[in-house]
């Protein structure tokens, strides 16, 4: 199983060069990019080469994915990115009913065509808003998962926050899940300075059940994430220690 690290976790902790060096020292071999990093691809490419880390996947906003596919493809080629994942949709742009989400899924498939044509994986990364009930138990994430041309990067933490069972989603949509964000949730009332998130293995998520379910679902790419750690080195190190207990 490939283990990666979402670099957004370390956005508050100094230059990318220092972050990548810290992750390499901690034992990571892969990372996942996010928006602001692509403003200086030269420096990013050099830092990856210097640390021996591979950027195997990347979060790239829908505006850039749709508006400048040639630039995105150029970045992917230079950095060796294999998976392009759209990570978010602003509240004022979110559809409000099933028909709207079906139209959005069609739009997303069209946006992903240049990347699929180039042999890349194209998909969607969820938060909690995609798990709202549209009626009859159907959610926006169901619509996206059931649409050909869209893979999922399933964020297990956000699934739990939305009141759903991550195990159920792994069972239902395993073949569509190209990667999973492994994210932990602190017990109620704890880690308020970290927005209620926890290092992997130090919260309430049942990893004893989730890691076997990930393997059973065929998910071979997991990405460590914590939205607001107070110490990214601590979070990166402790999370990887937990994961090593499940990934052989």
UniProtKB/TrEMBL annotation:
Domain of life according to the entry: Bacteria
Domain Xylose isomerase-like TIM barrel, chain residue ranges per copy: 21-243
Pfam families: AP_endonuc_2
GO molecular function: isomerase activity
Keyword field: Isomerase
PANTHER family assigned to the protein according to its UniProt record, in alphabetical order: HYDROXYPYRUVATE ISOMERASE (PTHR12110), INOSOSE DEHYDRATASE (PTHR12110:SF41)
Name of the protein in its database record: Sugar phosphate isomerase/epimerase
Organism of provenance: Pseudoroseicyclus aestuarii
Lineage: Bacteria, Pseudomonadati, Pseudomonadota, Alphaproteobacteria, Rhodobacterales
């Amino acid at each position: 199983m490939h283990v990666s690290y979402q670099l957004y976790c370390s956005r508050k902790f100094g230059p990318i060069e220092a972050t990548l060096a810290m992750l390499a020292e901690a034992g990571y071999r892969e990372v996942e990019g996010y928006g602001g990093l692509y403003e200086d691809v030269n420096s990013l490419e050099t830092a990856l080469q210097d640390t021996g880390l591979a950027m195997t996947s990347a979060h790239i906003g829908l505006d850039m994915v749709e508006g400048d596919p040639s630039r995105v493809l150029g970045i992917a080629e230079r950095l060796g990115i294999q998976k392009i994942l759209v990570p978010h949709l602003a509240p004022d742009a979110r559809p409000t009913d099933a028909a709207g989400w079906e139209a959005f899924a069609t739009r997303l498939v069209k946006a992903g065509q240049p990347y699929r044509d180039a042999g890349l994986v194209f998909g969607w990364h969820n938060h909690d808003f995609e798990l709202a009930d549209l009626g009859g138990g159907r959610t926006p994430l169901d619509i996206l998962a059931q649409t050909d041309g869209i893979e999922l990067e399933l964020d297990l933490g956000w699934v739990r926050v939305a009141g759903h069972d991550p195990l159920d989603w792994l069972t239902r949509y395993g073949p569509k899940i190209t990667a999973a964000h492994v994210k932990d949730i602190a017990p109620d009332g704890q880690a308020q300075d970290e927005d209620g998130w926890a290092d992997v293995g130090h919260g309430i998520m049942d990893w004893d059940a989730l890691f076997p379910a990930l393997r059973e679902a065929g998910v071979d790419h997991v990405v460590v994430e914590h939205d607001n750690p107070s110490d990214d080195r601590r979070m990166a190190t402790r999370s990887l220690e937990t994961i090593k207990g499940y990934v052989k």
